[in-house]
Amino acid sequence: xxxxxxxxxxxxxxxxxxxxxxxxxxxxxxxxxxxxxxxxxxxxxxxxxxxxxxxxxxxxxxxxxxxxxxxxxxxxxxxxxxxxxxxxxxxxxxxxxxxxxxxxxxxxxxxxxxxxxx
Length: 118
Fold this sequence. Notes:
0% of the residues lie in helices and 50% in strands. By secondary structure, it is mostly beta strands.
């Protein structure tokens, strides 16, 4: 199981970014995909989940209404569209796969840095 995150960068408050996570080594369509983030000096937190099958989504309250998670099964890729970015969104963003019990599979990738600053 391997994931590779990309798409981070420096953006001004109110701006947008789209993160991508390319997955390999497992049957992508059978697993939920999650985005996490870790800000300096803080614990890693769950940002969003998209389930397999119908693709139901869940968001942390802090990003609800601003972030959108989606998946493209043909490309084995999950996305995180981030709009209305705030300085408190600054973090390293990671993706992970999880099984039907919510258990994470594989290991953490290198993540992608998102910095929101004027």
